[in-house]
Amino acid sequence: MSKTLNAYRIKKIESLGRMTAMTQEEMVAGARTVAAGLEALRAEHTQLLAGLATNTEHENEKASLVKKSIEAIDLGLGEAQVMTALASHLQSVEAEKQKLRTQVRRLCQENAWLRDELAAAQQHLQASEQRVAQLEEENKHLEFMASIRKYDSDINEESDSNRTGQGEKKREDPMVELFPDDDHDDNRNNKSMSPTPPMHFAQQVNAGYEIPARLRTLHNLVIQYASQGRYEVAVPLCKQALEDLEKTSGHDHPDVATMLNILALVYRDQNKYKEAANLLNDALSIREKTLGENHPAVAATLNNLAVLYGKRGKYREAEPLCKRALCIREAVLGRDHPDVAKQLNNLALLCQNQNKYEEVEQYYQRALEIYESKLGPDDPNVAKTKNNLASCYLKQGKYKEAETLYKQVLTRAHEREFGTIDGDNKPIWQVAEEREENKHLQKENAPYGEYGGWHKAAKVDSPTVTTTLKNLGALYRRQGKYEAAETLEDCALRSRKEGTNQTSEPRMNLKSKLFNALGINTGSNAPHQ
Fold this sequence. Notes:
Largest sheet: none
Protein name: Kinesin light chain
Shape: rod-shaped
Pfam family, one: TPR_12
Helix content: over 70%
Distance between the termini: 121 Å
Family: Belongs to the kinesin light chain family.
TPR repeats: 257-290, 341-374, 383-416
Main location: cytoplasm
Strand content: under 5%
Low-confidence stretches: 150-194, 457-461, 502-529
CATH architecture of the domain at 17-147: Orthogonal Bundle
Order of helices and strands: HHHHHHHHHHHHHHHHHHH
Number of helices: 19
Radius of gyration: 51 Å
CATH topology of the domain at 17-147: Helix Hairpins
CATH class of the domain at 17-147: Mainly Alpha
């Protein structure tokens, strides 16, 4: 019996050793199995004890041993029950632990959501602060513009005499936008130029680059006042915009280059050529850095700089700048783009001032081909280019070629106004030559007014047609055709008088054209200059 009990204890100790390497579930299952075995063993010992109670005293000793064994079994059962209870407790603790973990995960998720909400709220706050700062800046601009309203006058109430004075000064020939016409050679080098028209001003400044919306109003005011010759208002406005741009965007920014271009053109119209050249060189450097050396805006700045040098008589310095602008526009826009033709006209005029007539003819002829093929024979630029090419022929003594071009311009203007030419519908140059022939034949010329009032047609392409009339009249005088010359000169004079007596274009229409050139409202880009 003692051997059996010892073997059980050894087995129990070994099982306890193995239990240390078991999982909680395995330990509980083993404890339950041991408890069941101990229950069975106690039942056997109880039966043995009952059987020994009826025997002799010799077996009392055995009975005591059985009792001790039963007590050991009871002790083992107690330990098994304790282990089972402990396992149940651990299970409940683990369940509570899992529950707490679930709560922790939920709290972490809620915390992350709250962090996202906080970040979104901070972004909204920053956006609101930026909007407030922008509104404050716009408010400052509005206050500044309100402070200079006293300089503003109602353009719609200006007298016709003021309009006439400005109309006589302004040149409307946009081939070079800045150089005088060929019939004003005495003003070519050092004479003071009139303010640049708003449409041309916007084209020269904004070619290839869009002005930001927050500065358009200020830019438009600068261009408007500069086009009116009111530099005492335009210059402070321009400097204010330039200062604001450099504070917000830094000096090397395309918007700063655009503003430098505007200020340079204002200085140029004031004959402050040195200041204008410095600003244009600065703008060119910025645009080359930020937009690239082959950007249309770089070509526009090069062209403006070339024109500035041309106005100062520095034609050799201006020519390579103009050629570089031409190369950029050919590369970006194509060789047959109308803006390339504009650049060819500028280059031809620079070469003409250097007496490079062969190159001048090539440039004008190529520009003329582009205009006729892309814009059609009735485009005003066709007549202007023919007029300039004819002036080049005149300087070389090629009077026949010049006369042909002048007649083409006048004939086309007549056809657009009065229809197909026939025996009763003659262009003004033919009328002039008939009057010259009648004078030689000693025939009486009818009053000029009976010839259909051709002078009204001169307004079709004014001032190009008017200039053509004057140039062809001068050519007739060289040829001794004085009656024909007087006829054309009279027609040109009537055209100019009627043009100045007509009501000028409404201011709102002028602003509308300016806004279109700047890309405002309509969203269209300004044409390249």
